[in-house]
Specification:
Blueprint: H1 10-16, H2 23-35, E1 39-43, E2 50-54, H3 57-65, H4 69-80, E3 86-87, H5 88-95, H6 99-111, E4 115-118, E5 128-131, H7 138-141, H8 154-170, H9 176-184, H10 195-207, E6 211-217, E7 223-229, H11 243-246, H12 265-272
Antiparallel strand pairs: 1-2, 3-5, 4-5, 6-7
Helix pairs in contact: 4-6, 9-10
């Protein structure tokens, strides 16, 4: 069946065998190959006759993991969720498994480092599962601005500020793409930054007058944006002294939102430190 992707019937396989094998022996062979993930069972559309076909790569991979029926079903659902993950309650609803069986299967998968649990920055009480080697989507993890505990990573921001300031001082007129490449190549960050991440941060640094933005209108009608060292100004900008002035996700901050002044611990800490 190796070259027969559409599959062969039992009768077709029997006719191709060099020597006759009784039905019992063939059944044992089929079951063995199916359990090892080397064959997959299909059905002929015309009469639903069983067809034996070479297994697809994902079937072979799962067979090699030697999972139970419940574990296999859970693994497939979690794999399909990719980097968005899937809520434990949704897993239970999709498979209609008793809670005890579900928790046992998930615990076994976690112990074998096949899946892991992650927390959502927006819904901390939800237990989200994804494959062990998958990096959570930014909307789940909060992106590079949050640490593994889903707290706003002020130390990471401080390091990036220092790196960008040094970069534009040594080599003015760098584009956001060039800055992004140099930051990712520095080895100082735990997570790779995207160009959108960097542009968001550069916008904050320009607003804080830490660096300056330069625009050059090109002959093709496009505008080239580069960054350089900022010229010191004498005026004092009180906003830069607040947590909001250093926050790279201030554009997402709004009253009643997932990121909001009401639940910002950094504003509380800042206010407590002011000598009224």
């Amino acid at each position: 069946v190796k070259d027969k992707k559409q599959g062969l019937t039992d009768a077709e396989i029997l006719a191709a065998l060099p020597q006759e094998a009784d039905q019992n022996k063939r059944a044992i062979a089929y079951n063995s190959l199916l359990s090892k993930g080397k064959l997959q069972l299909l059905r002929r559309a015309l009469d639903r006759e069983p067809l034996y076909a070479p297994a697809k790569a994902e079937v072979t991979k799962l067979a090699g993991l030697r999972l139970s029926i419940n574990e296999t079903a859970l693994y497939k659902l979690i794999e399909e969720s990719n980097n968005k993950g899937i809520w434990s309650r949704d897993l239970r609803r999709c498979l209609n498994l008793p809670k005890v069986q579900l928790e046992k299967a998930l615990k076994d998968l976690e112990s074998r480092k096949l899946v892991k649990t992650v927390k959502s920055v927006s819904q901390a009480n939800k237990k989200i599962y994804m494959l062990y080697n998958i990096q959570p989507a930014p909307e789940l993890s909060g992106g590079p601005w949050f640490n593994e505990n889903h707290d706003y990573d002020t130390e990471c921001i401080r390091i990036i500020y220092q790196q960008v300031t040094a970069l534009v001082k040594d080599r003015p007129n760098l584009s956001s793409k060039e800055i992004c490449e140099k930051l990712n190549g520095s080895g100082l960050l735990n997570e790779k930054l995207t160009n959108d991440n960097v542009e968001q941060l550069l916008g904050t640094m320009v607003y804080d007058s830490v660096i300056a933005e330069q625009k050059k209108h090109l002959s093709d009608g496009t505008t080239k944006v580069t960054y350089c060292k900022s010229t010191p100004v004498e005026t004092h900008n009180a906003l830069t002294e607040t947590p909001c002035g250093l926050c790279p996700i201030i554009s997402q901050c709004r009253p009643g939102g997932e990121v909001s002044p009401e639940n910002c611990v950094y504003i509380d800490q800042w206010l407590q430190g002011i000598d009224w």
